[in-house]
Write a structure and sequence with these properties.
mainly alpha; two-stranded antiparallel ribbon
Length: 245
C-alpha cells in the first residue's frame, strides 16, 4: 500500500492541468508550466517592491534588505570575475533569483494534496533546466561577441591549436547539457525524498527534510550561477585584478 502511494506520489510530480485544442492539434499545459510562471511572477513582484521602496525619502527595512541583497550579489560576482564584470551583475542576479525561487517552490509541493499542484519546483522537469541552461549559455556567447568581437569569438574555437576545433566545439555543446542535467538531477532527487517523506509521515512537516531541501535548492542555484560566471570568465577573460576566488 505504501509502495503504491509512494510511486503514485513520484509520478504525479508532473501532471497535466489544462487541455485545449487548436484546429486538429491538442495542447496541454502541465503544473510545471504554471509553476514556472508563478516563480517569474514572484520574482517580478519582489523586484517591483524593492524598486518602489527606493522612492521613499526615509529608507525602509525593505530598502535596506534590497540593498543588502544587491551588495551580496555584487560582491559574489566581482569576487569571482573581477571589477570589470559589473555589467553582467543584472543577468547573474536575474538568473540566480529566478532559479532560487523555482527551487524553493518545491518546499510547498505537499500542498498538491489540496489540489494546488502548481506549488512544485519547475526544475524537476528536465525541459525547464535545459531552457535555463540554454539561456545562460546563449548569454555567455552573446556577451563574448559583444565585448570581444566576432573575430575573437570564432578564433577561440581554434585555440590553442586549429586541430582542437572539434573538441572545443563539442565542449561548448556539452556545457548546457551538463548544467541542465546537474540542476535537474539534484532537485529531482531532493523532490523524490521530500515527497516520499511526506507520504510516509503525513502532513506533519519533517523539519530536517525541509532544511535539507532548502539547502539543496540554494546550493544548486549557487553552483549553476557560478558555472555561468566561470564560462564567461573563460570566454572573455574577465578574471583580472580585484578578483579573488
Amino acid at each position: 500500500m505504501h509502495e503504491e502511494s509512494i510511486q503514485e506520489t513520484i509520478e504525479k510530480g508532473i501532471r497535466t492541468l489544462v487541455k485545449f485544442q487548436v484546429g486538429s492539434r491538442e495542447f496541454t499545459l502541465s503544473n510545471i508550466f504554471f509553476a514556472s510562471l508563478l516563480a517569474a511572477v514572484i520574482f517580478c513582484i519582489l523586484i517591483i517592491l524593492f524598486s518602489l521602496s527606493t522612492r521613499n525619502k526615509k529608507p525602509s527595512r525593505l530598502q535596506y534588505f534590497g540593498e543588502l541583497l544587491y551588495l551580496m550579489l555584487k560582491n559574489f560576482v566581482v569576487s569571482k570575475m573581477g571589477k570589470k564584470a559589473e555589467p553582467v551583475i543584472p543577468f547573474i542576479g536575474t538568473l540566480f533569483g529566478y532559479i532560487l525561487i523555482s527551487n524553493l517552490l518545491g518546499l510547498f509541493s505537499p500542498l498538491g494534496k489540496f489540489g494546488l499542484y502548481f506549488f512544485v519546483a519547475p526544475t524537476i522537469d528536465l525541459s525547464i533546466t535545459l531552457a535555463m541552461a540554454a539561456v545562460g549559455i546563449f548569454y555567455v556567447h552573446f556577451h563574448s561577441v559583444r565585448v570581444k568581437g566576432i573575430k575573437y569569438y570564432i578564433a577561440h574555437y581554434f585555440k590553442p591549436y586549429p586541430l582542437m576545433f572539434p573538441i572545443n566545439l563539442i565542449e561548448e555543446i556539452v556545457k548546457p547539457l551538463s548544467l541542465a542535467v546537474r540542476l535537474f538531477g539534484n532537485i529531482f532527487g531532493e523532490h523524490v525524498v521530500y515527497e516520499i517523506t511526506f507520504s510516509l509521515i503525513g502532513f506533519v512537516a519533517p523539519v530536517l527534510v525541509m532544511v535539507l531541501a532548502l539547502f539543496t535548492g540554494s546550493v544548486q542555484t549557487y553552483v549553476f550561477s557560478l558555472l555561468i560566471m566561470v564560462y564567461l570568465t573563460e570566454m572573455i577573460g574577465l578574471h583580472v585584478e580585484g578578483s579573488h576566488s
